[in-house]
Specification:
CATH topology: Growth Hormone, Chain: A
GO molecular function: carboxylic acid transmembrane transporter activity
Largest sheet: none
Helix content: over 70%
Subcellular location: Cell membrane
CATH class: Mainly Alpha
Radius of gyration: 20 Å
Membrane topology: Multi-pass membrane protein
CATH architecture: Up-down Bundle
Distance between the termini: 31 Å
Structural class: mainly alpha
Number of domains: 1
Domain Major facilitator superfamily (MFS) profile: 25-412
Shape: globular
Pfam family, one: MFS_1
Amino acid sequence: MSTTTQDKARPFEWFRSLGQRGRRAFVGAFGGYGLDSYDFQVLPLGMVAITAYFSLSKPEAGLLTTVTLVVSAIGGAVAGILADRIGRVRTLVLTVITYAVFTVACGFAPNYETLLVLRAFQGLGFGGEWAAGAILIAEYAKPEYRGRAVAFIQSAWAVGWGLSVVVYTVVFSLADPDIAWRILFWTGALPAILIWYVRRNVTDAPHVAEQRTANKNRGSFAAIFKGELTKTTLFAALLATGVQGGYYTLATWLPTFLKEERNLTVVGTGGYLAFLISGAFIGYVTGGYLTDRLGRKKTFTLFAVLSAVLIVAYINIPEGANTLVLFLGFPLGFSASAIFSGFGSFLAELYPTALRGTGQGFTYNFGRAVGALFPTLVGFLATSWGVGGAMVFGAVAYGIAVLALLWLPETVGRELT
């Protein structure tokens, strides 16, 4: 066996191959996306308390998530253009500052209307962070390791989600719900530590920065809708719509489903979510390895089908079978998260360097915005169907994702040029 083959067989060779600068960038991007997740999840976790505090209907509650995700499409598109024009790292810092500041501000909202506006502004940073961080690592990673390298960044979502559940469980166990949801938002100040680290230690991949700055057409939004890129952009956006429509249906309404239809306490809900989140973390990592081995498209298809089937199974478990709900949460979290593992590498490989941030930022966050309509639809239907019955539309979203893949190319092993 050659030395090269031995190196490739080492479990974390993908991390070693990033080099010193790449590893520092990995820490910054991982932390940025993890805290992005944390600041998003405080809303669905506090949703029951917020709904009671402001006397909201379910459609109004669902709109809080939808407005965050719709505005995140604007934030993602703008951040993608900025990433191509001013660099990946500088854009990363700007997005983290934005989502942190407005998450904290949400905790001071005096009424529903103010909370809705502040949550919209939080969406600007929330949508932009992933575009900058995923591209940063994709450009440091070698082609044969790109899928798993970016997938580990994606796994930070589960870490941030898990941290938010721990904090939620503690805060709501110790404080009255009327103040506990505000405290939860105030803890969104955590990203300030990350900003200090990124500014001191992280830089763009040198060879990519040279290519980017040499191109006068970098960051052109119109260019991603020209020539062959038109079809790529449209169907990549549709793929992102399906995957995120399914995911955000789960992320927004699952805590409410567990409390209202399964009658779980705060501590009980945290325990059930722990199974879901553990499955999510392992799913992200496993999906990264599979996307390098099976290819991007086969991995997307596999986990879209599994996620749709598991959603339907989860919401149709008979009353009284809460143990089954507990254990089925693991494969549900696994599949719904593993499907995201290929996004960072796949979207990066679909676009040239000068348009990579723009293309990735727009397609992923367009999907986030349109996919955000699913939680609102579930909120409206829940009044007559129940939360569990309405959540079946998450399975429909995954079907849309599979259809979009028919018009997109396989990109595994592609060099970033």
